[in-house]
Design goal:
The complex is a heterodimer of chains A (about 100) and B (about 325). With about 100 residues, chain A is an all-alpha fold. With about 325 residues, chain B is of the alpha+beta class. A ten-stranded mixed beta sheet of chain B has the order 3-2-1-8-10-9-5-6-4-7. In chain B, β12 and β13 form a beta hairpin. The chains are: A mainly alpha (about 100), B alpha+beta (about 325).
């Protein structure tokens, strides 16, 4: 497995926070710390199987608590009603 | 908040809330009990407060003295209030609950009685069933609509109160609601009532039951059937007497046909051939009796699913819709 070195530039003013963080890392571990930070950032911006599982569990809890999902007869979330009929039902409620 | 549909009819009380559906005869009676029971009197509804009274099947089976009213003034009566409370206590056993109710009235009585029905149902109701905690049921919203709209709403709305049948919702539809004492005919266009095509007929399933009961008392004098058993006999066109079948076909036809003709005469006056109607929906406790005659007359007529509960189910779906507004 070959090694490669990547260099990048930092601004002493605008990137002062990064420089401070790098200075806190042990010199022998700086590359490893940067690699971990980059991997952590990459995983946060992509959806993992764990994220999907958690979302399904959250939905399951909400449905068990009585939430309902709006969907049309075809499964879509759009729900059009004939306007005159809907108005007639509104009038019926006011009788 | 519990959404409910409640249909207090002359013949039976029906109430629906979600999967909960209850029906019992519109009868109150003294709170007498059998000395022993093999089935635990599971059908028995006994209120100990605000009145000590037995309701429904339990009253029919156990009470020494029964009350059954068929006059229009019963809406103002204690019996009507007791039946309504019994229905609410069947929908929930919670000690404290808030409800949104939709109920109905026959077309002919709607304008005159709707405020009275709404006022009787709205507000706090304190009651206690035998063997239960005292309950306070707070009806915070109550709408009263013409009764046959219930069946139309059942056919048109889903369980969340949304319009799912666009053909019925956008067309002109006739509804024939055959109740115990009255048959309501309603015509709507785009779900709005066409008032000059709407009528009530003072005839219903109860008339057929009475006629068949009179015939049975003469020809099968030892037979003691309850109302719903007479109804079953009418539908089956047969009854068993001392183990032998008694054919009721001809006498049932002779009873139902004039009743159906009375309803169809009014329907024809209102709708002519009915050709302009998208559909004719037949509902109510008498739908299974008069439905075949009506369907024969109007070829696009159909008995709605579960016609006995159709109005109460529609009322509940309408209550669901109101929640979403």
């Amino acid at each position: 497995m070959a090694k490669t070195t990547v260099t990048f530039s930092l601004d002493t003013e605008t990137d002062r926070d990064i420089l401070r963080w790098l200075e806190k890392q042990a010199k022998s571990q700086r590359s490893a710390a940067v690699r971990d930070a980059l991997r952590d950032h990459m995983s946060r911006n992509s959806i993992t199987l764990g994220d999907v599982y958690q979302a399904v569990k959250d939905l399951e809890h909400k449905l068990q608590a009585g939430a309902s999902v709006a969907a049309g007869p075809d499964g879509s979330s759009n729900w059009d009603e004939p306007l005159e009929a809907a108005a007639a039902l509104d009038a019926l409620a006011r009788l | 908040m519990i959404n409910g549909g409640i249909d207090v009819g002359y013949y039976a009380v029906k109430a629906v809330s979600g999967n909960r559906r209850v029906m019992f005869p519109s009868i109150t009676g003294t709170p007498d009990k059998a000395r022993f029971s093999l089935n635990g009197n599971s059908a028995s509804i006994v209120l100990v407060s605000p009145q000590h009274v037995q309701v429904g099947e339990g009253a029919v089976a156990q009470s020494r003295f029964l009350n059954r009213r068929e006059d229009r003034g019963w809406i103002e009566s204690q019996e009507w209030h007791t039946l309504a409370l019994a229905a609410l206590s069947e929908l929930t056993s919670a000690k404290l609950a808030e409800l949104r109710l939709v109920s109905g009235l026959p077309v002919a009585f709607f304008k005159g009685d709707k405020d009275a029905v709404r006022d009787r149902l709205l507000g706090n109701h304190k009651l206690q069933r035998e063997g239960r905690h005292a309950q306070t049921l707070r009806v915070v919203d109550c709408r009263v609509i013409p009764q046959p709209f219930g069946a139309l709403l059942t056919a048109t709305l889903d369980n969340r109160g949304r319009i799912i049948d666009r053909a019925l919702a956008t067309g002109t539809v006739g509804i024939i609601d055959v109740g115990g004492k009255t048959t309501n005919l309603l015509s709507v266009n785009k779900l709005a009532e066409i008032s000059h095509e709407t009528e009530s007929v003072s005839a219903g399933a109860w008339d057929a039951v009475r006629a068949v009961r009179a015939w049975l008392s003469e020809h099968c004098p030892d037979l003691d059937l309850r109302d719903h058993q007479v109804m079953d006999a009418i539908i089956a066109r047969q009854v068993r007497y001392y183990g032998a079948p008694v054919d009721l076909a001809s006498m049932v036809e002779a009873t139902l046909e004039p009743l159906a003709n009375q309803v169809l005469a009014v329907a024809s006056q209102l709708w002519n051939s009915g050709a302009a109607l998208e559909a004719v929906l037949v509902s109510g406790g008498g739908a299974l009796l008069l439905g075949p005659y009506i369907c024969k007359h109007f070829r696009h007529a159909r008995v709605v699913d579960d016609p006995v509960f159709a109005n109460a189910t529609g009322f509940w779906r309408f209550a669901q819709r109101l929640e979403g507004r």
